[in-house]
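User: Please predict the structure of the protein below. I'd like the answer in structure-token form so I can feed it into my own downstream comparison script.

Assistant: Understood. Taking the following sequence of 335 residues as input:
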Amino acid sequence: MSEFSQRLIAWQKQHGRHHLPWQVSDPYCIWLSEIMLQQTQVATVLDYYPRFIAAFPTVQDLASAEQDQVLQLWAGLGYYSRARNLHHAAQQIVQQFGGQFPTQRIELEKLKGVGRSTAAAIAAFAFRQPETILDGNVKRVLCRVFAKDGDPANKKFEQELWTHAETLLPDNHAEMPVYTQGLMDLGATICTRSQARCNICPMRDMCQAYAQNRVAELPRKKTAVAVKQQTLFWLIAQHENGSIWLEKRPQRGIWAGLYCVPTFATLADLNDYIGTHNGEELPTITHRLTHRLLEIIPYRVAFSGSLKHGKWVAPHDLADYGLPKPLNELLHNIK
């Protein structure tokens, strides 16, 4: 067993996180948590995870659910393609794998939305398979401890990290869950991006970046992606009984598959849709997506009858629909 894995396992057992609800051997729970934790803080997932498990206790329950149910529970968690992929993958498990999770990483990677690192995490945690993860936290730990210096966007450099990570795996496969959790914990709580806690790190005396005074330098920062600005106009059509007109978003694009108020690229398009109106312009909303900054200008209009491709939804029923986070907040304030 490598010195690195030996230290990591000992440290995790004594100082790592042991309270997380998905620290079980059930592959369904592990898979669900891994998908939720992609680009999302643990504190946020701790709020969503129990509600999701309560609604869909098994992968069969998730597979048989309507997409709207899944998106409604996911609303506010962001990156909604994860929810759609999760639902699709649950159906794959039921239809292609007889309701049982594959035990091998290669097979797990066939599931929609499951890449190599996520598949490795499921295989290691649930089935004690000798597979290494390589998420952002692990890349940072490896780049610092072993002074790996390269362009994070370079595929050859990433493959070098995969290869090195595989050499560090413990010989005793029964230790794979502890080792894998240790990698996550070390990167999330000690070897953090902005403020590494080198004074209490179990790897300090073997960390090459620490010895070379390069902890702040490694890993190299990714080139920032330009943020595009986009203006949208929302039609908040409100019935005299307080209901709001909602329509389902297309399966592609912003907020795909969620329910939303009619959305337009220009105010002229909004006016053409509804005809002449005495709309009230509400305060502009700014909302940041991954590579996009949205400026949303809502217009509230009193309206009776029906519009196209949607439905009136009473205020007390809004919670049953998966809504974009900024719309949910706006409608809550209107109520």
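That's the full token string. The beta strands are 228-238, 244-248, 259-260, 263-264, 280-281, 285-288, 292-302, 311-313.
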